[in-house]
Amino acid sequence: MFIQNLITLFTGTVVAQAIPLIAAPLLARLYGPNEFGEYGLFIAVLAVTGTVSTLRYNIATSQANSDEEAYYLLIASCLISMLISLLILSAAFFISITDFFSAYNINEIMIYVAFGSCLVGAIQVFSYYFNRQNNFNLTVRFKIAQSLVGVLGMVVLSKLGALGLIFGHLLGQ
């Protein structure tokens, strides 16, 4: 059973990561270096805030002593993620008032980071929770759907420039 679950997770992860890799030449034709630069800034900030957004309570979800405790940790993690996202949104508002990063498009990007970090936190929490429930097929389906919807969103929204990449990513989340 362990090997079968391992193969399921491995195969799903490979497929989910192959989708953007296969779509990369198309995305490179639709977007320029500036758009990818803004998207890279968004992803870099989101990587930090998304990891912190649950205060790592998502890991406790899979290690809980009972299903009831895991469920309460799931709820607490989602609420913490929302609270952290509101703090990021407040910081984005403060940054836009002070015009601190006027040379960059960070004011607008931080608003999307706030929303994205809440989504990333939820995805992390539910992934750990589904793994605790031994529901690996659902985890894999979500990963593949997330990747596919994200890439399709980026392609469809290409007329928006860097926002197309950001919105496509958020749609995938």
Structure description:
This protein has 173 residues and is an all-alpha fold. Helices cover 84% and strands 0% of the residues. The chain is flat and about 45 Å long. The model has no long low-confidence stretch (mean pLDDT 88).
Record keyword descriptors for this entry.
173 residues, 7 helices, 0% strand
Percent of residues in helices:
over 70%
User: How many helices does DSSP assign?
Assistant: 7
Unreliable runs: none
Secondary-structure element string? HHHHHHH
Mean pLDDT: 88
Round the Cα radius of gyration to an integer and report it. Answer: 18 Å
**How much strand?**
under 5%
Largest sheet: none
Characterize the overall form. Answer: flat
Helix/strand-derived category reads mainly alpha
Compact overview of the structure:
With 173 residues, the chain is an all-alpha fold. The protein contains seven helices and no strands.
SSE layout:
Blueprint: H1 2-30, H2 33-52, H3 57-62, H4 67-98, H5 106-132, H6 136-156, H7 162-172
Helix pairs in contact: 1-6, 2-5, 2-7, 4-5, 6-7
